[in-house]
Amino acid sequence: MSEPSANEIALDPSNLWVAPDPISTPEMLCAGTLLYFDAPIILTLPPQVVTQQSFELLDKIESKSPDWAPQLFSVLSAWHQKQKGTRAVLTLLKPLAREAFHTVWPVYNSNDEALRRAKELISSAGWTPDQFLSSIDFESACGELVRRLFLEKYLEVNRNLDDLYECIASVFSD
What we know:
The protein contains 7 helices and 3 strands; from the N terminus they run βαβααβαααα. By secondary structure, the chain is mainly α. The chain has one domain. A 3-stranded parallel β-sheet has the order 1-2-3, with no helix packed on it. The radius of gyration is 20 Å and the shape is globular.
């Protein structure tokens, strides 16, 4: 039995196609996707940090200039690049909005328990660190780390910037 061609496949408009990682360059979204799916495509937005107070810590980090600061600022830079790229793609696609795509901001836990489960999943797959790292989008991963530290962890330590500093130091010192 032969496979049906693309124009023979009947699509159920209640089914949606979701791009789990934010699309930050036009090359990340195949134009064919827009042609083959009748229902709107769901594009996710980069992780957001909804509290500016946690970023007050950056002044302290700059003044102390710890050895790990360049790594943190590199992660922050990658997160900013992902946001900037996603905004540019959404501007490019704006004429197609509503009919061809919708944006969502996924909400989920990124607490210690979620990280523990993620480690278990990676371990159960038998992946080496290199295999795992080669399968993820670096800028998206940086965004997840920024969200984890500057939102989730900030709230976990009751908005105490000294405790947050120590947490961030432990992440980037290991």
